Amino acid sequence: MPDTPVTSLRFNRLLLTGAAGGLGRELRTRLKRYCETLRLSDVADLGAAAPGEELRPARLEDRAAMVELLQGVDAVVHLGGVSVEAPFEPILQANILGLHNLYEAARLNGVKRVIFASSNHVVGYYRQDEVIDARDPMRPDTLYGVSKAFGESLSRFYWDRYGIETVCVRVGSSFPEPVDRRMLATWMSYDDLERLVMSCLSAPVVGHSIVFGISDNRTKWWDNKYAAHLGYVPQDSSEPFRAAVEARQQSIDLKDPAAIYQGGGFVHAGPFDK
Question: Given 103, 125, 126, 144, which residue is catalytic?
Fold first, then answer.
């Protein structure tokens, strides 16, 4: 993690949903130094609570449980839900109904800021030879991407109607290192993930913002100019991994839709009723 905290602000209680997932486990170890209490929620096993942690398992589709979960919370980092392409029913329950429940819970409890884990798959049907920004039309590549597009629209409604600020983070590929040539453009280090989340939480005013979750990579598909007000300055890059990645993947099939579109392999996912 970064040698110095991203912000000197310290929150009373932060809520991290999806805390048992890949990025949730990573942020669990990082967010605690920014708050007195870190409340963790998931439907999967969260293990034992460390000092300063509260474990609150809850299903997103359970409205009453969500209202209780958001009581006494300063802000929410929402990673919960289905994170890959899947049949529509579980996506509907967790990513659509569940997200509505979360925003209703925020409204009822007076929670005024949400960091929403959107996805690059909201724009996955743009080509890899295009550079887009957050104001270009959505072009989701999957039902999963459609659910994240819904989340961006729902969060905009809750900002316009109820004044609940949201930063929609279109997460690229956050892993220890990029594993293929696509990730040379989409990769975000875990340290930059922390920098981005804390920039979203600590910026004085965010309104309704959309930011691409990437490091300072040489290969760029996404222009982050509309996120400058957040103060996010990535410090890492996929470039040190380029030689190893290119050695593993020396050629690309330019007829493969996964090599044509920014969504990569997600454009091959489903349908599930074959």
Answer: 144
